[in-house]
Amino acid sequence: MSGNTFGTLFRVTSFGESHGSAIGCVVDGIPPRIPLIEDDIQAHLDRRRPGQSRHTSQRREPDRVQILSGVFENRTTGAPVALLIANEDARPKDYDDIKDLFRPGHADYTYFQKYGIRDHRGGGRASARETAVRVAAGAIARKVLGGGIKIRGALVQMGPHRIDRQCWDWNEIGNNPFWCPDAQAAKDWEIFLDRIRKEGSSTGAVIELLATGVPAGLGAPVFDRLDADIAKALMSIPAVKGVEIGAGFRAAEFSGPENADEMRIDGNGSAVFLSNNAGGVLGGISSGQELVVRFAVKPTSSVAQPRMTVSIQGEEAEISTKGRHDPCVGIRAVPIGEAMMACTLADHMLRHKGQCSD
């Protein structure tokens, strides 16, 4: 199986399956002498960990990370950093009764068509369980970026219900289980999601990522555009079906003058933008403005309501998925999206320094 490595200079290779003994990753290209201990990584893993509210999967995984290599006396050595996270609450037997059935909306069918083998234990390699190691790698990427760049994410839409942007308050993010910056929307979503869960259904979500302190100059024209790599990073997250930068699809509604981010000179003699429809990227290169990215996550495919499907033997069947699943997988996608943004920016920062020596 190819395609398990992301990045050019800051490279992340992940391994492991949902119900195997462990998952992990190898992160290469980390500069030496960066302070790094397991607690630096654990803080971010704890934000993604399942079972922290009734609105997420009740799988009980502590997600304790082990640093196996690349760190000596609490500093990176320049060698690859290997990370390991044990699967401590795997229940592969939950899937025994559907081992010959393809779950609609999942990767079961396409994996079987490609590889001729089916890991029915929660989807195996296709499971969102793999994203824990992305969060771990993202924690290291943040250390590479330094404290000047801040990456934050928020859930801005659940199903058809959007936040009121006039009520955006970053302090509310930690006051509810949805990473929601709108206190009233979070209360409404709780009622909505309780109903969805009781119906044996699921719902989708939209997450917005903001990166501040990103210097101008990261990225490159044509194939190595910063926005293209951000889009690839986010589209590689399981269940993500769309990405937009800045105004995104709304830009199609604007006129040229409306869409153009006009510029002036401030009191310090520096160029400033009067708007940010471009989302902080022009011609594939960061402009120094805030990076603004949104991505859409589809409803969780594992639902209790019976669905029509087919079997490996080519027979028509009906399936309802049991086990522990998120009624809205978008909730835990917030720290995952932040991590993939961090990995992308770290990679481009190292690439920029390699070419431009600054």
Give an overview in words.
With 358 residues, this protein is of the alpha+beta class. Helices cover 25% and strands 22% of the residues. The strands form six sheets. The protein has a five-stranded antiparallel β-sheet with strand order 1-2-3-7-4, with helices on one face. Strands 9-8-10-16-11 form a five-stranded antiparallel β-sheet. The chain has a two-stranded antiparallel ribbon with strand order 5-6. Strand 2 and strand 3 form a beta hairpin. It starts with a strand and ends with a helix.
Features:
358 residues, 18 strands, five-stranded antiparallel beta sheet, alpha+beta, globular
DSSP E strands, number: 18
Contiguous low-pLDDT stretches (5 residues minimum) are none
How do the strands of the widest beta sheet line up side by side?
A: 1-2-3-7-4
Helical residue percent band: 10-25%
Radius of gyration: 21 Å
**Range of strand content:** 15-25%
Overall body shape? globular
Largest sheet: 5 strands, antiparallel
Multimeric state: single chain
What is the averaged pLDDT score? Answer: 92
Q: If helices are DSSP runs of H or I spanning 4 or more residues, what is the number of helices?
A: 7
How far apart the termini lie comes to 37 Å
Structural class: alpha+beta
User: What are the secondary-structure elements, in order, as H or E?
Assistant: EEEHEEEEHHEEHEHEHEEEEEEEH
